[in-house]
Amino acid sequence: MNTPQDFINQLIPHKTPKKIGQGAADVNIALSKYWGKRQVELNLPTNSSLSISLPGLGTHTKIQADKTLQHDCVCLNGKRLKQDDPFAMRLSKFLDFFRETPNTFFDIHTENTVPTAAGLASSASGYAALVLALNDCFDWQLPKKELSLLARLGSGSASRSIYDGFVIWHKGQTENGLDSFAEPIDAPWSEFCIGLLEIDLKAKKVASTTGMQQTVNHCELYQAWPKKAEQDVQAIQQAILQQDFSELGALAENNALSMHATMIATWPPILYWQPESVEAMHMVWALRESGVEVYFTMDAGPNLKLMFLQKDAERIQQAFPALKLIRPFG
Ligand code: DP6
Description:
7-stranded mixed β-sheet; globular; diphosphomevalonate decarboxylase activity; lyase; Mev_decarb
């Protein structure tokens, strides 16, 4: 079996930094979710997943290797983090794989245009932007498939943030992890809209990495998840290619609720919803009953992401005045 370091050494040509590196990536919202790892060290998922990237919402990262530093220096949104900050520690652990010598540390400046750790997938854009910045810093000139493989090791959902538009992350079959990467689905859909409904932007209590491990290990219902998720990925891909919005919305909403059902049925239970999240779900269902086609999805947090077509945007914006409207192909 590959160790994470073997895995990385197979992908990168060298470890000699060349210049200050820069990278930018957008967040993505999964329409069919990644929930569970079959192999933790290599971040190999139990199931494939499918997402949409949100242009203009993401992360920009600058990185420089510096042999005079005694440790990594991480600045997040202009604020220098302490060495023992959990965000900085996770980043440094990932950067350990790329050091020229054990004493080569990095100066990292990262800016998020999404609230960090609020269920808006900032780790996805974060690790994708970091890998792009490393690719620039070391001048590796890697193809996107390799960048997606590297980003996966930082955070699973980051494998998808390497691309714009609809993206599929294949779970892969091998133990070495080299076939578990994301690819774009070439199917722009200009009418397709996402609306962000922010319920609570505080950092979540259970990080997704921890939450999915608890679910895998302590939820009897989880057994049913991988098969369902795999079927949903295929069916959602079909719906995208046929631009069948009703099918896509229904499948995506049901997929999200099924994932949350496994979380709730874990012991101790994991419930990311707030009362306002449930209230918003009821509003979405009421709108649908009144003939406005809108669906929701939710990740490891209380916020809702709505899916609808441009023709209904005004009605939906009226019902949810605080909605942030995004047109992924606009
Ligand atoms: C609910 O990619 O954040 O958003 O691989 O442990 O970093 P790690 O987890 P992460 O999990 C995302 C979970 C999700 C669903 C999804 O985006 O597919």
